[in-house]
TrEMBL record:
UniProt cross-references to CDD domains, sorted A to Z: AdoMet_MTases
Keywords carried by this UniProt record: Methyltransferase, S-adenosyl-L-methionine, Transferase
GO molecular function annotations of the record: arsenite methyltransferase activity
Domain of life: Bacteria
InterPro entries: Arsenite_MeTrfase-like, Methyltranfer_dom, SAM-dependent_MTases_sf
Pfam family, one: Methyltransf_31
Catalysed transformations (reactions): arsenic triglutathione + 3 [thioredoxin]-dithiol + 3 S-adenosyl-L-methionine = trimethylarsine + 3 [thioredoxin]-disulfide + 3 glutathione + 3 S-adenosyl-L-homocysteine + 3 H(+); arsenic triglutathione + 2 [thioredoxin]-dithiol + 2 S-adenosyl-L-methionine + H2O = dimethylarsinous acid + 2 [thioredoxin]-disulfide + 3 glutathione + 2 S-adenosyl-L-homocysteine + 2 H(+); arsenic triglutathione + [thioredoxin]-dithiol + S-adenosyl-L-methionine + 2 H2O = methylarsonous acid + [thioredoxin]-disulfide + 3 glutathione + S-adenosyl-L-homocysteine + H(+)
Residue ranges of every copy of the Methyltransferase domain listed in the record: 58-204
Enzyme class label: transferase
SUPFAM superfamilies given in the database record: S-adenosyl-L-methionine-dependent methyltransferases
Organism: Candidatus Segetimicrobium genomatis
Protein name: Arsenite methyltransferase
Family note: Belongs to the methyltransferase superfamily. Arsenite methyltransferase family.
EC number(s) given by UniProt: 2.1.1.137
Length: 233
């Protein structure tokens, strides 16, 4: 059994490196990710889906990206919500926060900000976000239930969650789950899709649904995008 702090350390070291590969580097199990309209963005893009395609962002909204990496989804979200809206990225790796801020400067995006922090302890006040997105991150988190309950706390009543992630159909072999290196590669921490949806419901979300996924083969990881809402007050 690997300890949570060990996993966090391995994941942080992986994404701090200049050559970090994402969850889809060696596989064709991911949906496409998109940075169209982000001219000048120098990446890296390490996602495994397009949560923004299912977030239905409106002008003026506040969007938060859990595990924002180099900021591609945050910068795109900032464009979509316009000058009266805001996009906030949260990431636990200082090197990623630095890259994201550099990308924001290059693209001259002024309504985006990046905060250093863990998504299990979000640096956000209660009910402060209209929309929360995440792209290929929660699989890397040892306590996924805590991450979803933090997302629930930070969303306003009626707010929306759209998450792309690596999941499984059934359980992965214990030898795979016990290997710290396969956590950083988005394999060991992936959980069964039904269990993933159940964790989101247990955090308090409603209308939890899978909106798209790549084909799921037992014993292998695949990408799914899930949407849910926090019940209105
Ligand atoms: C696979 S990359 C995805 C980055 C980005 N979402 C994208 O689509 O390019 C995973 C990111 O999640 C961050 N991360 C992993 N675990 C985290 C945690 N517990 N809290 C905050 N960030 C985390 C890593 O530092 C890394 O930047």
């Amino acid at each position: 059994m690997i300890r949570s702090d060990e996993i966090r350390q391995v994941v942080r070291e992986h994404y701090a490196g200049g050559t970090a590969t994402g969850c889809c580097a060696d596989t064709d199990c991911c949906g496409g990710t998109a940075e169209e309209g982000l001219q000048g963005f120098i990446g890296p893009s390490l996602g495994c889906g397009s949560p923004l395609a299912y977030a239905a962002l409106q002008s003026g909204e506040t969007v938060v990206d859990l595990g924002s990496g180099a900021g591609g989804d945050v910068l795109r979200a900032a464009q979509l919500v316009g000058p009266t809206g805001r996009a906030i990225g949260v990431d636990m790796t200082p090197e990623m926060i630095w890259k994201a801020r550099q990308n924001a400067r290059r693209l001259d995006v002024t309504n985006a900000e990046f905060r250093l922090g863990e998504i299990e302890h979000l640096p956000l006040s209660e009910a402060s976000a209209d929309v929360i997105i995440s792209n290929c991150v929660i699989n890397l988190v040892p306590d996924k239930a805590l991450a979803f309950s933090e997302a629930f706390r930070a969303l306003r009543p009626g707010g929306r969650l759209a998450v792309s992630d690596m999941v499984t159909a059934g359980l992965l072999p214990p030898s795979v789950r016990a290997d710290p290196a396969t956590w950083a590669a988005c394999i060991a921490g992936a959980v069964d899709l039904d269990d993933y949806l159940a964790m989101i419901r247990a955090a308090g979300f409603e209308r939890v649904e899978t909106v798209t996924s790549t084909p799921g083969t037992p014993g292998q990881v695949f990408s799914a995008t899930v949407r849910a809402i926090k019940p209105p007050a």
